[in-house]
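Re: weekly structure request thread

Next one in the queue (391 aa):
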Amino acid sequence: MPANALTATIHPTTASIPAAVWNSLVPSTSGKTDNPFLDHAFFLALEESGCATARTGWQPQHILLNDASGAPVGLMPLFLKSHSMGEYVFDHGWADALERAGGHYYPKLQCSVPFTPATAPKLLVPSGAPAIRAALLDAAQQLAEQRDASSVHATFLPQAEADEIAGDGWLKRVDTQFHWHNDGYASFEDFLESLASRKRKTIRRERRDALIDGLTVKWLTGSDLREHHWDAFYAFYEDTGARKWGRPYLNREFFSRLNQSMADRIVLMLAYDGDEAIAGAINFLGHDRIFGRNWGCTRDVPFLHFELCYYQAIDYAIAHKLAVVEAGAQGEHKLARGYAPATTYSAHWIAHPGLRHAVADYLEQERRAVERNQEMLDQFTPFRKGERLDR
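Done, posted below.
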C-alpha cells in the first residue's frame, strides 16, 4: 500500500479511539487480545484512573493509521514523556549526556505499555504490510519533530519487530529477563524432577517454609474478585512501592477499573493467615502465558515472595497448560528457581546526530556484554545436565 494512501491521526487520549477499533488492530485469539496489556481496556484504565496522563508525564499521543477508504490499518501506542520513570529500559545516562552538551532530552516519545516490562508487539498492523509499519515509524519521527522531542523509544518488542525497526535506521538494544518454560509438566513435582537434586531440595524447603504455621494461598479471578480483595492487595502494593521508589506508579482506582473491565484476564494470588490476607501478587493472563507483575505484603515471612511470585505462577501455568511464565523485570535470583535467561529488545530513534552516534557505540558494547552475561547465566540454571534444551 503506498504511503500516500494512508492518513495518520494523533490521539491525545485512549478514549478517543473506540475500543472496537483499537482491539481490531491487536493480535487476538477467539475474540480476546493475545496480550492483556495491549487491550484497549488496560490503556483506558491507566488513563482514566490518572496513572498515565499529561499530569504524570505520560501524555497519550497514539498514532492511528487509516487507509484511503477510512478503514483503520495500523496503531502505535505512544506517549509524550517528560521523564524516564516507569519504563524499565534505562536511558538516564543518555539524557544526562545530551543535557551536559547543551541540548534537551525531554520531552521524548515512548512507545510502550506504561509501567509494564512485558514483551508485546508495538507496531500493530494486522495485515503485516511493511509499508504500514514503515508509515507508523515515519509518523512517529514526524511527531517528534513537531513536538520538539529528542527521540522515540519502542520498548519490550518481539525480536522480529526489533530487527525490522533497526533495519529502518533505529538503534536496537537488548537486555535480560527471566522466564519459566513449561516443557509439558504434569505437576510441580514433575517440574522439580527436571532439576538437580540439590535444587529440588532447596525449592521444596522454600515452599514449606513460606507456608509455615498454616498459611494458605488462594487464586482469585473473574467474578471471584471483589473490592475488598483489591483493598488488601493495594495495601501490599503500596508497601512495596514505598520501599523501592518512594511512591507507587499505580493508584487504587486503577485496580477497580481493571476489575470492572478485565477481571477474567487477572489472577490475584493472596496469602492468608486464617481469614486475614497478609500478602499478594497480581498476574495477567495472555493467550499462552501468565505475566507476573506486582507484589507486596504486610508481614515478612521467609520465602513468601518466592512462593507467591514464582512457584504459584508455575503451579498455575502447569494446571492451565500455559507455555510461559514471564515474571517481570530483572532478578537473577529467579535463575535458581527454574526461570531461564530470556532476551528482551527495544529500538530507539535519536534526532541529535552526535548523541545517536555515541549511543550506537554504547549499544554495540552493551549487546556484547549482555550476550556474555547470558552465556554465563546459562551455566547456573538448576536443570540437570542435558535435561533442558537451549532456547
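The two ends are 36 Å apart (CA to CA). DSSP finds eleven helices and 16 strands in the chain.
Next request, please.
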